[in-house]
Amino acid sequence: MTVAFLDPGQTYNDLRDELDAAYHHVMASGVYILGGAVASFEDKYAKYCQADHCVGVASGLDALMLTLRAIDICPGDEVIVPSHTFIATWLAVSQAGATPIAAEVNAATFNICPERIEAAITPKTRAIIPVHLYGQPADLDPIIAIAKRYNLYVIEDAAQAHGAQYKGKRIGSHGDAATWSFYPGKNLGAYGDGGAITTNSKKLAERLRVLRNYGSREKYIHDEQGFNSRLDPLQAAFLEV
Question: What is the mean pLDDT of residues 117-143?
Fold first, then answer.
């Protein structure tokens, strides 16, 4: 299978033959959980995002929540989030057991304001989630500088930012990880739910692969409490087209 990201003018009808071929490829493979279709998309999407690793999961919300779990965010921790974003950004923090702390956004861009981030940091703060809202990247350089100063993680919510660039580099690996949604209305939309995480950290990618699959590296051996959150092979095949 080849990858060619959808041009703005293309429609389903323009890609019907390729999408039908992707469907039949997966159905004929007999592999309906993870497998080659997911691995192929992960490899190509990582390269597209200029990241070393991509881990496909079931949704954009799961991408955020699992990433927070993978960096050991837990009850008692605080995570700074924009005051203006889709609810999934906040829900992911709550589902990880932590407390979302709102920082106001810039009125010109609707993205989180770096100056407001620093004012919101407390001894309980563990991470910052900048959201690249409406496809417009947040101002990452000062955010990452603040994170380094306070030893915090930066998890980018890139659910609306497929293909966006920050200072000439595609969104996908500026922070510790970037999380993606493939909900049908996104820039890169599936024919159902789907999500992914891109990162340059091999250690983080390996932990995410375990967490998405019941905490298991080997069938019926479970190293930790995990989740059932795997990108569906059919959706991966469609996304690759």
Answer: 97
